[in-house]
Structure formats: structure tokens, C-alpha cells
Amino acid sequence: MNRNSVPVLILVVALTIVASLFVWPNGFSNSFMPWRLGLDLIGGSHLLYEVDMSAVDASDRTSVLNGLRDVMERRVNVFGVSEPQVYTSKVGESHRIIVDLAGIKDSKSAIQQIGRTAKLDFREVLDPGSEDKEPTFAQTGLDGRFFKKSQVAFSQNIGEPEILIEFDSEGARLFEEITGRNVGRPLAIFLDDELISAPTVNEKIIGGSAVISGRFTADEAKNLAGLLNAGALPAPVNLISQQVIGASLGADSLNKTLVAGLAGTLLVMLFMLVYYHKLGFFSVVALFIYVVLTSAVFKLFGITMTLSGIAGFILSIGMAVDANILIFERTKEGLKKNISMVAAIEDGFSRAWLSIRDSNVTTMITSVILYYATTGFVKGFALALLIGVIISMFSAISVTRTLLRVFMKNQPVNAK
């Protein structure tokens, strides 16, 4: 027994026990952190919108599309959907926004709320309010009709992100009047009657161009600019497809997927036991630990589980076993030289590591490309596969190696 590996094994076992209780369907964690299941598993509504970009300059279309997506996400949150998914896609010259509302069966009100054109307007702050009183605002007449566009820039002095906004001639006149009487006071910006920003007016602004600054991060500035563009530029959205998935169909798909995944995992474990005997037993234990730890990561980080995600997870199980097979084959080659089991195991891990590393890195690269270059179900598959491969490397190299170091005897044995 390698006593130096015993503390590591105890830590892995303790972590696995805690993770098992955490991921158990009826475990203690479900009251405060339930599993997040996608539309295809619990049912709901799938809405497909097409964005009319005919009146939007080509250079502004990406910003407008992302802004509309953010607007829809804000609207979806009103319905209390546990894990809404709103993402964009482009098919030829068609710009589209896909909305998945898990658990929402009656999509009529959702369609009316989500698909309307975003409304942007600027309001004066009459009373900033206090802890016991809401602030009050007054309409100024300056709204998205007079707003030309916004874009992110960086200040010349300190290089912080800021937002450049621009009005047309009539908007410039209104903006000059409004800023003239609100110097030193905030000017509220509303989108869909929700306050999104309230920058302070430093001086009367002439010419219709202004800068919004305020210690933004690059992402915050980009998101705000997108929201402003979405509420200003004429880009109506049209519902072109809707699909309602029943809860019973989703539950049936989930059951079939889990049964298939369990059957496949058990067959893999059986193969390892039959072909590799004692070594195979340790790979089965490591595989069980891998499944538990990976499931815990999915649940802990709130990753939405979909059919495609589960498929990626199941695929990663096969890859985890593949690493063990490489190690065991190299170990068997060492045993044929009549060296001790411990020496053969260390030699097997050393010789197999480069192949395991290269194969897993290439899979991770592919997963990252799929995640950032695709949307929807393929993206969920890529994320699940990426997480699974990363944890499988830990399982194959650390867990299996620790088990073998602790329990395998240091004596010459045959190839099995």
C-alpha cells in the first residue's frame, strides 16, 4: 500500500459521498438548488422570431440584434421562467431570435409581451426618492423616434469604456432644452418603462451628441449600448414559428435518455471487468466517481440539462474509459517484462499520458469551437462534453492512479 496516496483517496471518497447526496433527485439540495431541466425535458414553449433589419444600417445590425435579445431576456424574466434561453441566429440574410420558455404551456400572453417593439424614452427626475418613497419622473417627449444610435468608445484620458449617443436634428433640439434645465441632476433612461440608466447631466449639451460615462466595464457598456439601439432603431420582430412541448413528452424523453445512459454505462463497466479483471474493477470505481462528480458540477453551477447535454455527458463517459484502456494496455506491456505491478502501473501512466492529453485537448478545442460558433441544442451538447472531458482527465489520471497506488501489491504478476 502506498501510504502517501491514502489521504488523497480519503479526500476523493469524502468528496464523492457529499456529491452523491447533492445530486440525488430527492436529496437535501433540491429545496434550495433543484436540477435545471431544459425545454425538451419538462415541456414548455419554443418561439422563433425574425427581426426586420431592412431599415437598419448593416454596421448596426449586430448591435441591434444583441440589444433585442437582451430586451427579450428582460421581458421573459417577468414570467418567472426557471431557466429561459434566448439566443440569436442568422440563416442567410435572415436575423432570428429563439426563445425557449421551459414550463410555460400557454404562450399567448408570453408572445404578446415578448415580441412587441422595444420602447425607449428619456425622463426628468422630479424627486430622487428615499428609502420609504419611490422616485418620481416626468415625461420629456424625447424618445426612440429621435434617437439615431449609440456605440461603445473608450475615453482618451483614462481609457474607460463609455457610450456615445446621437440624436437627429429634432432630438438634438429637445435634448438641448432638457439638459439645459437639468444640469447637475440625473436624466433617467427608460426601456419598456423600466429604468436602465440615470446618468448625471454635467452641462447643457448642444448638437445632439453626448457621452454616457460611469465606470462601466466593457461588457456593461456594450450591453447598455445594445439596449439603447434596440429601443431606438426600427427593427420590428415577427413571430414566424411556435411550438408547445408537453410535459409528458419531455418526461418520456428524459426517462428514455436516462435508461439508455445507464444501460450504456453498465455495459462499459461490464466490459472493463471482463477484459481487465482486477484493473477493470478499479476503472469501474473511478468511472462511478467520475459520473457523480460531473453530475455535481452540472447541478452546482446551474447548467441547464437538455437531451443534447445529456448526450454529450454520456459521450464523455466513453472517453473517460478510453483513457483507462490506454493506461491499462501500457501497464500490461510492462507486466510482460516481469516487472512489479506498481512499477508497471507507473510506467503505464507515464507512457499513456501524452496520448490521453492530446486526444482530450483536441476534443476540448472542438467543444469550445462548437460552443461559441453554434446555438441551441448543439451549444448544450458542446458545453456538457467540454465539462465531461475536463473532469474525465482528472478521473483517469488522479482517481484511478490513486486507487491503484493504494490497493495494488508491489509484486510481479501476469499480464492480467
Describe the structure.
With 416 residues, the protein is of the alpha+beta class. The protein has 3 domains: 3-38 and 246-407, Multidrug efflux transporter AcrB transmembrane domain (Multidrug efflux transporter AcrB transmembrane fold, Up-down Bundle); 44-117 and 237-244, Alpha-Beta Plaits; 120-232, Gyrase A, domain 2. Helices cover 53% and strands 19% of the residues. It has a 4-stranded antiparallel sheet. The longest helix is centred in the middle third of the chain and has 54 residues, at 247-300. It is elongated and about 90 Å long. The two termini are 19 Å apart. Residues 411-416 have low confidence and may be disordered.
Short structural summary:
The chain is built from ten helices and eleven strands. It has 416 residues and is α+β, with helices and mostly antiparallel strands.
What is the CATH third-level topology name of the largest domain? Answer: Multidrug efflux transporter AcrB transmembrane fold
Radius of gyration of CA atoms, rounded to a whole number:
29 Å
**How does the overall form come out from the CA principal axes?**
elongated
How would you name the CATH homologous superfamily of the largest domain?
Multidrug efflux transporter AcrB transmembrane domain
Q: What is the CATH domain class of the largest domain?
A: Mainly Alpha
User: What is the number of E strands?
Assistant: 11
Mean pLDDT: 82
Biggest β-sheet: count, sense, barrel? 4 strands, antiparallel
Estimate percent helicity: 40-55%
Strand-pairing-aware structural class: alpha+beta
CATH architecture of the largest domain: Up-down Bundle
Oligomeric organization of the protein chains: single chain
The count of helical stretches stands at: 10
- What fraction strand? 15-25%
Number of domains: 3
State the strand order across the main sheet.
2-3-1-11
The separation of the N and C termini measures: 19 Å
SSE sequence, one letter per element:
HHEHEEHEEEEHEEEHEHHHH
Low-confidence stretches: 411-416
